[in-house]
Amino acid sequence: LAPTNIDVTVGLNATMQCLASHDPSLDLVFIWLLNGYPVNVDKESDYYERSIMIKDNGELIVKNAQLRHAGRYTCVAQTIVDNATASADLVERTPRTSWWTQSRRY
Fold this sequence. Notes:
Blueprint lengths: L5 E4 L4 E3 L12 E6 L2 E2 L9 E3 L9 E3 L8 E8 L4 E11 L13
Parallel strand pairs: 1-8
Antiparallel strand pairs: 2-6, 3-4, 3-7, 5-6, 7-8
């Protein structure tokens, strides 16, 4: 399952899906890239989290999304003998602001 493009409002969470099938005798590792650069989930744990509940799941959760998290995410699923990649875009939307006017009587 490849990641799909996602629109997320600033401050909310987004989940990038990535599932891969492989030879069960080989270890499978998922690496995420943002605009070609590795996402350091451990260093940026305030904003990123990995799902480790399901085997063969490389899900990446973007927490409290900020404008700097927008871009092209690439999931790399790799074993010692092969790898596969799939990409999707994360688009940040700013929250809508409601404007209203208040009538005043003088």
